[in-house]
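Hi R.,

As promised on Friday, here is the backbone we talked about, encoded as C-alpha cells. Could you run it through your design pipeline when you get a chance and send me back a sequence?
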C-alpha cells in the first residue's frame, strides 16, 4: 500500500507543479502542461507476460493499449494551443471510470 501512496503523491505533485507554473509563467508565453498517459504499447510493454498485458487491456475502456503516436498527438495539440497549467489524461478513459 505504501508504494501506491507514493505513486499518488508523485502524480499529485507533478499535476500541482504543472498548474502552479502554468499560472506563474502564463504572461511570458511559456506554457506548462503535462500528459498523464495510460498503458502504452511500447518495446517494454511487449516484454511483459501475456497475463500482465491482458490485465492492462481489461482495465482500459477502449479495450487496447494506447499507441505511442496517440500520446505524440496529444503533445502536438498542447504545442498548438494557448493552454497552460493543464494536465491531459491520455489514458483511453482509464481515469474516467
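Update: got your reply. Pasting your designed sequence below so it's all in one thread:
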Amino acid at each position: 500500500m505504501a508504494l501506491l501512496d507514493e505513486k499518488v503523491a508523485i502524480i499529485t505533485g507533478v499535476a500541482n507543479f504543472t498548474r502552479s507554473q502554468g499560472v506563474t509563467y502564463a504572461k511570458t508565453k511559456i506554457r506548462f502542461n503535462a500528459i498523464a498517459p495510460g498503458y502504452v504499447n511500447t518495446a517494454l510493454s511487449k516484454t511483459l507476460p501475456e497475463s500482465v498485458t491482458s490485465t492492462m487491456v481489461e482495465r482500459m475502456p477502449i479495450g487496447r493499449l494506447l499507441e505511442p503516436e496517440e500520446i505524440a498527438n496529444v503533445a502536438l495539440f498542447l504545442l498548438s494551443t494557448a493552454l497552460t497549467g493543464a494536465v491531459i489524461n491520455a489514458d483511453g478513459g482509464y481515469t474516467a471510470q
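One thing I noticed while checking it: The first strand starts at residue 33 and ends at 37.

Thanks again,
M.
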